[in-house]
Amino acid sequence: MMGTKFAAACAVGSMTLATALLATSAAPAWALDGDPIAGQAIFQRICQNCHSIDVGVNKVGPSLWHVVGRQPASVQGFDYSDAMRGNKTPWDVTALDSYLADPRGDVHGVKMFFKGLGDARDRADVIAYLQTKQ
Ligand code: HEC
């Protein structure tokens, strides 16, 4: 149900997304306001096994420096899945939230062998952390 809400809001742009989230009682306000410090800890515990935050450093996964706002599959030298190459939705907050909720779900294929972050607050925190790495 969150998915539908995000997808619907996404279509009409991020300002409207903010409004939609604030106007809906079921939507958590912190979805827009993650904690980068908590996000860094989550990143170091989970994502760092496969991702570096440094420019140009690819591990099992591509470097996540400057990921927020960039096109998917745009890191030079990383061998992305066909599904990720075919993904044309820029990594905005909404796209990251839905990818990280279920990386192996229907959107982006199966190359990231990671079950995802089930907790929306964890996702908001990690995204807030990634936003500091621009
Ligand atoms: C087990 C290894 C693994 C873990 C853990 C992992 N990832 Fe990934 N990630 C990958 C791989 C591999 C890809 C490339 C996916 C593809 O090509 O389909 C990827 C792709 C991505 C992308 C798309 C990057 C781009 O350049 O388009 C993002 C964003 C991302 N991961 C974020 C995260 C975050 C945030 C975490 C921690 C919450 C995380 N990943 C945990 C392996 C991992």
Could you explain how this protein is built, in words?
- Helices cover 41% and strands 0% of the residues.
- It is an all-alpha fold and 134 residues long.
- It has one domain: Cytochrome Bc1 Complex, Chain D, domain 2.
- Helix 1 (2-11) runs antiparallel to helix 2, helix 3 (36-45) packs across helix 6 and helix 5 packs across helix 6 (120-131).
- The radius of gyration is 14 Å and the shape is globular.
- The structure holds heme C.
- Heme C (HEC) binds at residues 46-47, 49-51, 60-62, 64, 67, 72-75, 80-81, 83-84, 91, 96, 100, 108-109, 111-114, 117, 126.
Principal-axes shape call: globular
CATH class call: Mainly Alpha
Low-confidence stretches: 1-31
| Rg of Cα set | 14 Å
Quick tags:
single chain, about 130 residues, mainly alpha, Cytochrome Bc1 Complex, Chain D, domain 2, 6 helices, binds heme C
How would you sum up this structure in a few lines?
The protein is mostly helical. The chain is 41% helix and 0% strand. The protein contains six helices and no strands.
Task: Please outline the helices and strands.
Elements lengths: L1 H10 L2 H10 L12 H10 L36 H4 L7 H9 L18 H12 L3
Bound molecules: heme C.
